[in-house]
Amino acid sequence: MGGNITVANGSVEMQVADLDASKLRINLSQTLKDIPAKETLSFGQTMTDHMLMMTFDPVYGWSSPEIKPYGPISVDPAGSCFQYSTNVFEGMKAYVGPDGKPRLFRPKMNMERLARSASRVALPPFSTDELLKLVKKLVSVESRWIPVAKGYSLYVRPTIIGTKPALAVGPSDHAILYVICSPTGPWVRSGQKAISLYAVDEHVRSWPGGTGGFKLALNYAPTLMPQAVAQKLGYDQCLWLLGEDKKVTEVGAMNFFVVVQREDGGWDVITPPLDGTILPGVTRDSTLKLLAAHPSKSVLPGLSDSDKLHPQELQMTMADLRKLAEEGRLLEAFGVGTAAIVTAVARIGFEGKDINLPTHESGMGPVAQALYDRIIDIQMGRFEWEGWSVVCE
Ligand SMILES: *Cc1c(COP(=O)(O)O)cnc(C)c1O
């Protein structure tokens, strides 16, 4: 607390103030908004009453953080964020537990990923522990906004923007770090509907040595046009491919998994390895850990203890997927991420043909369903697992 961080100011290294949660000022809104009925919520449309905000300047360092009424912020038109996309963000969710207390899911992972993203675009460093204390405080202040129902939560969006008001291309030594919140319901309104994917190889989301492994805003703008094309062709999301051999990477802004029948009767549950082109998702990591724990701890509901699951981080090509599908061994495909948690895939369009997955009544296969149910239970504090659900006091 009250510590310093070292930042480069030109060629000079300087000691400036780190983030300090003990300096938080809280300025509550005089007029609180009406909370919309939860059935009417669509993702990211409604913002809560307050936001958390702090600024960085190269002489002082991080300002005292403030929780204040939600509203516009003022940034110079020459600001680095507008000109050179020095913007990074996180996505996390808060739930109300059976004890009535708000909680976050593995929030340290988000704080650490935010710091790595900031570093990748030369934004200033900050104490991830101090930021987590502040995020917890914001969630506590906004707890009346957390809808209490399965599939509902408060989406929390930490953001850092570079605000150096100068046009020369260079690191932004001014920044604003803010956190906003938005109540949200199930990703797909109609429940857990399986989605269709359009496999894209003429545009790439990420590449070796690129920035796909970081949550940088600049990774998303180039995905919007291919996504619109996919929708026009009748598909819900893009399946991003990479390279001559058409390696499968991610689906939309989710990590991709497939379930494959093994010769020995078990199931391989495969996702691409973190080689720099894949976003290291919190849900991806949680999925791999839950799969590895089953069946010795019977952690996945609805799957029998004799179902042998083999989590694997392996590269897969479209040729692999097509072959597995032809052999009848491609049992499930699904995307995982904070927003939707688990989304089943029903078909994948590739080179003018569809790969169809076995359809399931619920829209989800047994592995996707088990993961979805268990992850929600852990997030809502109904199933204690490895301290993943963290109470905000
Ligand atoms: C955010 C994101 C994910 C999912 O990460 P989580 O931490 O699980 O929310 C996956 N892929 C991309 C490209 C993302 O931006």
Structure write-up:
With 393 residues, the protein is an alpha+beta fold. Helix 2 (107-120) packs across helix 3. The protein has 2 domains: 4-184, Aminotransferase class 4, branched-chain amino acid transferase, N-terminal domain (D-amino Acid Aminotransferase, Chain A, domain 1), CATH 3.30.470.10; 195-381, D-amino Acid Aminotransferase, subunit A, domain 2 (D-amino Acid Aminotransferase, Chain A, domain 2, Alpha-Beta Barrel), CATH 3.20.10. It has helices at residues 80-84, 107-120, 128-141, 221-232, 282-293, 318-326, 366-379; strands at 4-9, 12-17, 25-26, 50-57, 61-62, 66-69, 87-89, 92-96, 102-105, 153-162, 175-184, 195-200, 237-242, 247-251, 254-261, 267-271, 309-313, 330-337, 341-350, 353-356, 389-391. The chain contains 7 helices and 21 strands. Strands 3, 4, 5, 6, 7, 8, 9, 10, 11 and 21 form a 10-stranded mixed sheet that branches. A 6-stranded mixed β-barrel has the order 12-13-14-15-18-19, surrounded by 4 helices. It has a two-stranded antiparallel sheet with strand order 1-2. The protein is 20% helix and 31% strand. The structure holds pyridoxal-5'-phosphate (PLP). Pyridoxal-5'-phosphate binds at residues 91, 215, 250, 253-255, 279, 281-284, 337-338. It catalyses: L-leucine + 2-oxoglutarate = 4-methyl-2-oxopentanoate + L-glutamate; L-valine + 2-oxoglutarate = 3-methyl-2-oxobutanoate + L-glutamate; L-isoleucine + 2-oxoglutarate = (S)-3-methyl-2-oxopentanoate + L-glutamate. The modification N6-(pyridoxal phosphate)lysine is found at residue 215.
